[in-house]
Structure prediction request, 277 residues.
Amino acid sequence: MDDALVRAGRALRLVLLVALALVFLIPFYLLLRNGLSSEQDITSPAWTFVPAELRWGNVRELFADPSVPFARSLLNSALIAVATTLGTLFLASLAGYGLARIPYRHANKVFYGILGTLLVPAAVTFVPSFVLVSSLGWISTLRGLIIPTLFPAFACFVFRQYFLGFPRELEDAAQVDGLGYWRTYWLVVVPNARPVFAAVGTIVFLGAWNSFLWPLVIGQDRNAWTVQVALSSFTTSQVIRLHELFVAAVVSILPLLLVFLCFQRWIVAGVERSGID
Prediction:
């Protein structure tokens, strides 16, 4: 009897998990379905789960559209997301390690000051940041899109909290071998902190890839557009190209899925160890 109840409970959990998975997959199905449909199929009141004709040519049309340099936008987003992620991991981890391990009487004050910036709405600093970037001549450049976003306080907070619980024995052994703070950080701490680096890096990468307002304002030239800005150009007051919008959304999601699949194990481990909710 108990075995039957256990099997029934497992079967019920499996059914619930499958049902939830299908619910979460519905948006992806709609993107793919509409991306391979014509404008008439998308807007038709007679809904069909699979369009009568799968228009694979929509993908070719997307990259051949002269009004939207989508391939260039993909490249820009990739460069910005990768550079922002690497720069943030380097700077924020250094700051977090310094605040957690290097003796300094004002370390807590500096840390609380960094935390205080999390309370400031982004809209408050948006205009001053734009004026600074404009005065430096960085409008429509990768420097203007990347450098102002390299040090999020959240990443510094996560690294500092993680390094507070990092085993001191490893660092003590490194110092006995004559390593200073920098070599201890680079040769001992970083290789043993891959989960938190993966977790923070994924969050930063997603944020940089999905960023819209800052790239919209700074990337004023079409050659400086990112994926999100390019997506917005398919629905304007002059033209609405739904099939290109949907297929472009599918293409723009693929790099995010790839990043998550590659770093899934480390992401989960990093979330568990760093206490990210």
